[in-house]
Amino acid sequence: MRQSQLFLSTMRESPADAEVISHQLMLRAGLIRQLAAGVYTYLPLGRRVLQKVEHIIREEMERAGAQELLMPAMQPAELWQESGRYSVYGPELIRLHDRHEREFALGPTHEEVITSLVRDEINSYRRLPVTLYQIQTKFRDERRPRFGLLRSREFLMKDAYSFDTDWEGLDQSYWNMYRAYNRIFARCGLNFRAVEADSGAIGGEGGTHEFMALADIGEDAIAVCSQCDYAANLEKAQAAVPAFIEADQRADAGTAEKFHTPNLRTIDQLVQALHIDPAAIIKTLIFIADNKAVAVAVRGDRDINEIKVKNYLGVENLAIADPAAAARLTGAAPGSIGPLGLTVPVLIDEEVARMTDGVAGANEQDYHYRHVYPARDLELKHVGDFRNIVEGDSCSRCEKGRLNIYRGIEIGHVFKLGTKYSARLGATFLNPDGQVQTMLMGCYGIGVSRILSAVIEQNHDEHGILWPAAVAPYCVHLIPISVKSGFQMQTAMELYSELLAQGFEVLIDDRDERPGVKFKDSDLMGLPVRIIIGRDAEQGMVELVERKMNKKELIDKDAVLKRVREFVESEV
Amino acid sequence: MRQSQLFLSTMRESPADAEVISHQLMLRAGLIRQLAAGVYTYLPLGRRVLQKVEHIIREEMERAGAQELLMPAMQPAELWQESGRYSVYGPELIRLHDRHEREFALGPTHEEVITSLVRDEINSYRRLPVTLYQIQTKFRDERRPRFGLLRSREFLMKDAYSFDTDWEGLDQSYWNMYRAYNRIFARCGLNFRAVEADSGAIGGEGGTHEFMALADIGEDAIAVCSQCDYAANLEKAQAAVPAFIEADQRADAGTAEKFHTPNLRTIDQLVQALHIDPAAIIKTLIFIADNKAVAVAVRGDRDINEIKVKNYLGVENLAIADPAAAARLTGAAPGSIGPLGLTVPVLIDEEVARMTDGVAGANEQDYHYRHVYPARDLELKHVGDFRNIVEGDSCSRCEKGRLNIYRGIEIGHVFKLGTKYSARLGATFLNPDGQVQTMLMGCYGIGVSRILSAVIEQNHDEHGILWPAAVAPYCVHLIPISVKSGFQMQTAMELYSELLAQGFEVLIDDRDERPGVKFKDSDLMGLPVRIIIGRDAEQGMVELVERKMNKKELIDKDAVLKRVREFVESEV
Lengths: 572, 572
Fold this sequence. Notes:
The structure is a homodimer. By secondary structure, chain A is α+β, with helices and mostly antiparallel strands. In chain A, helix 2 packs antiparallel against helix 5 and helix 2 (44-63) crosses helix 12. In chain A, a hairpin with a 5-residue loop joins strand 22 (428-430) and strand 23 (436-438). Chain A has 3 domains: 21-197 and 418-456, Bira Bifunctional Protein, Domain 2 (BirA Bifunctional Protein, domain 2, 2-Layer Sandwich), CATH 3.30.930.10; 247-384, Alpha-Beta Complex (YbaK protein); 474-571, Rossmann fold (3-Layer(aba) Sandwich), CATH 3.40.50.800. Chain A has 15 helices and 31 strands. In chain A, the strands form 7 sheets. In chain A, strands 3, 7, 8, 9, 10, 11, 12, 21 and 24 form a 9-stranded mixed beta sheet that branches. In chain A, strands 13, 14, 15, 16, 17, 18, 19 and 20 form an 8-stranded mixed beta sheet that branches. In chain A, strands 28-27-29-30-31 form a 5-stranded mixed beta sheet, with helices on both faces. Helices cover 27% and strands 29% of the residues of chain A.
């Protein structure tokens, strides 16, 4: 492609409303333009990158035996009513009426459509399992679209759905997709982790993993072990628990005693007034879980993880009790509440269960207990992991490594749905004995457009993008320094033809611009290999620059083809 | 692909609601499924055909120098207000509100978006011309969706837009796309004509062509010359006009005289009562054209072409006058109106201008004139082509051939928009002299999904589809007659591997079904080459069937690769 003809405008300055570097660089390098909040046009360079990513996804989906189809964006409201999601999905679901006043949703996801399709097409175990996928435009009316393609309202997604006869089959389909996702993101040049995640509101039994590209601007926090391959979403991450100290091992422990603590309501106040470690305090909060009250006790230096509490209780809704309700249930206002003598069930975090000399609220205004020894003083009926892990916790899997907390951009998600949709929509089949069974489903998503942002967040320097070869819009940037020099242009055009003939994607900067302008644009666009044709061309020499490593060398122009091929082979 | 694993269900019977053959076959062969009226899912076989067509389009667009981008479906209402189309587009435009009550349209086309984009990106003649295209999903809330993919509400379209500095440039861009379209449709195996069309409501100066796939179920009528390459939409088609007979060449013509014609109001009544040819009657109708009255006179056996009348007058709106208004303007009710003595302008069709002895209304209840000789009796101020052509008319271009009328499916459309959108949206540039000029635009559409319907309408027999090799979902259908025969299956799997290794797309029917079922499905699906592995396989022979020609022959299995290659090369 001749750059003089390319539909591309670069910008020197970052637009004021672009907060994150990937958004800034995508605008500056002419990859995308905003049409409305969270709604973007992909310019030719951006479209090319998108196509590279789509191509990698298709190859790996086909390799994994998934079959491509294409479902519509316009989905009848009736289908969403059948699954029960029409009323609960909220304002993210874009709804519209057709000219006959029939209601439709613009698909944010396609569980309903695919389930109704497979229900109608397949009725025998003989035609299962099957995994179907599409690369298709999704619509979600985000409350706050931002960060360019990271949180947009119209975006490209790869969504796949598997259908199996039993849990064992679902397990195979799930790990098959899991492996395909690892290959896809690796081929895109991403630094990512597959992290264990909570199944969340979408429901369903069984496992789920999120694929997270590590990046400081990521909206999710993930815990990653320094030694083993354990990685989990913060909602789900578990730390290793120290060994249990049996009650009789601490025969020296003092007896729990109530003492006056006027105006000491917060952990900080207790720490300062009593000169104790926050880890020695038992923090107790009252929650309403599906209309029933429960207490949760964690160490004073920990945060309660509500997802873990919900999962332990098996409830749909969990909310902290308002102060009046808490006082009614415990006899004290928050700040003086503690686990001793409560009538509501008490969930005790493992770390609390292992304390031997704690301070806890006495459920009486301005009083606390000291020398609380839970194994002795409490009924340890509900002990579990109810806290958020923190940086430096021991890994629960290998028990050797430390957990580090990173930020991640969610680029993919695999999920065992089980029978959630198939049961509601009646996707059944006849088993070999002629009995009706419900299909087991999995769903698997990749944020195709979001991958562009993630790649750039991980691959840039102060001058611009550093495209991995596999997803670069072009592989080679040919830059004749002076288009007025007949010799330089001739050399450049010869190299251009040779590279094209060998199947390389080449952009040639044939614009009559100053070298400084060309180099700045080239740095910004970040094609992997740059070949500069300047004065040395008359001696048959050109400069080859590997953009990422900023490795420059003067080479014989006859060696260009070989060197470019070597580079690409080493990269991809 | 193993057919046992393919997500495909064929149907023996045509669904009741599928009126046309392409719709029936697409459902029966498992290419598409309906989700809602005019909203379809493409199953794997259909998706593959779509991708073949997309690939051909991309290759030819790139060859023509067009650059691909991708614009959003969600378009802010403000843009449509800027172009003036938001209020006039009607209920076909799907409108919606986001959560902040901002109005959006779901793009039925992208003139507004592309014009605003190019306005913002390009401001100098140096960066023109440019042609941009996308393959993207469009939404049109058709009043009556039908015929499967032929008239649907969500569909895939390739739309391109060119931007030039002057009309000469636009002309080049236009014909460049015109040639690309010819290549695209030819490669898809379609029998089509590029027909001259009227610019219609979309407006704009200059030319437009519609690309029509000939098919009896087509919604448009086109006139095609039997001798030359003239082809035009019926709205636009012109017949050759017989030589003019000067007034003095018919000195024998009788004088126009009024005569009593009680209760003779229609052409039929006049023909029967007076025993004359309808071609000897002058039919005169009164129209209201942008609030002004005009009369239009054509031969009694002709229909008035309102598009031609509108274009002649240069008006936006044309409607036939109601009887009361017509009587007020002429002094007579419809049935007694004629061109003599009218005070409103009279548009006279060329055929009428050449008559020498006509019968026409006298603008007096129950009276007509006979011996009307327009060249003598009328002021021939507005003579032109105001009628629809009919089958058998002489061609206006070569004057030798006859015009035949065919039905056509519109598969593409090229259109010179001129400055219609660029002027309204302010897409200007600086010319070499530093002056501001308005860009000249063209727009170019292809109904990508509609091509599937057109191909099938033209390529089928009573048993199923006859895919042209270039767009077939798979090229070769391998059919081992009995999967229980180890020898047949081994031969089939060997051929499968060999064909795949050579890059052919192969579907192998490895299902344990009766041969009759397999052949019926194979006929329905219509892959170009079928290879049947039956008992003769033990003698090293297989049957090769060219589906389209129903050409069968027993060949040595070692000759299969060579024969398939020969076939494909002869087809594509």
